[in-house]
Specification:
Strand content: 5-15%
Distance between the termini: 57 Å
Helix content: 40-55%
Number of helices: 18
Strand order of the largest sheet: 4-3-5-6
Number of strands: 6
Length: 438
Amino acid sequence: MINRFLFRQIDNSALIIFRVFFGLLIFLESVGAILTGWVNRVFIAPEFTFSFIGFEWLQPLPDYWMYVYYIVMGIFGLFIMLGFKYRLSIIGFTIMWIVTYLMQKSSYNNHYYLLILLSAFMVFMPANTYFSVDAKIKPSIKKNAMPQWCSSIFILQMGIVYTYASIAKMYPDWLDTTVVEILMKSKEHYYLIGNILQQKWVHYFIAYSGLFFDLLVVPLLLWKPTRKYAFFASIFFHLFNSIVFQVGVFPYLSLAISVFFFEPETIRNIFFKKKELYRDNEIIIPKRNTVIVSVLIIYFSIQIVLPLRHWAIKDDVLWTEEGHRMSWRMMLRSRGGIAKYKVIDKSNNTEIPIHLNNYLSKKQLRVVSVRPDVIWQFAQYLKRDFKAKGKNVEVYVDCSVSLNGKPLKRLINPKVDLAAVKWNAFKHSEWILSSKQD
């Protein structure tokens, strides 16, 4: 039964036009990161970057080579859009995007993680078999059909993303609009809409429309009678996010994925009127069907379980941040804090003054005051830095955090030498103090 569903041949118009949109958007993302100064702020200006733990060896290229790095990604995006050297281009972009993702997390965003997953999907897609330079050069690869799994995995992935995003919003500070009010306060200066965004009714609208949109959009897109209305709601939702939160190309990428929810004939009539519509519904089961099915089951099992891992870790994920990343917990909380790093020279037990501005950019200064894993990483960095200078040191951090505008509470045990403890990604770190402290 599963083979008949996954390997039934369907018209490939949705995949072909998605390839065009996808290539264009990653080109704009890559070039936009340069033009807006993001590459400079995140990779070039800082003395070092906070890579994902375990990937500290991944550091930015020296001087201005990160600009070249992003230009190459942009070129790959154009090649993907045109369907030129498609397989090489999508593999190249995927590897480069994974590297740039792991290289820094000061500007962590769930959308960057989503782009990794979508890029990995596209590596295995027959997305250059129509309306592509590759098909012009080599007509033998031209096809009007694709296996149904090529469409279904995009739908299932977005179902997971939206569902977990909705569930994560089901907590008091979101439901009473505390979080939304804080988020909108920073938009007060926006031209025309700034004052409107401060209205309480707008906060309730954003909070509950966001929650129900995430929960219902995929089912409503799948059901033909509501599909059109759900798509128009998606346009409003994603354009609002683009204007208010300025999250780059990702709202448009989410809209582009909507093509997989529509009937192939609809997509073909809009974008490829001269294309022959595939209607045969053949079932072509490849020799390696068991491998394909097994990989899909394992992958989506991980995708379903990974966002739940924080339930197996002590305390509240909103406080500890343990299990926060790669869990579709998007724009859910506001964190602010203060931190003092104390470095003690073991040889004479004297304190060495630390001026954070000498080490960190403005963006990094914020995260080393509120995120436990980054606090730990900076302590490790200080340990290595002083070791290179011939000093063996201990690093203590006195850090207090305000979550969603609440009074400051101490986050880190100031009596623990963070330079001497190890990080455990799947277990609570006891030096992170309880969220239930008085």
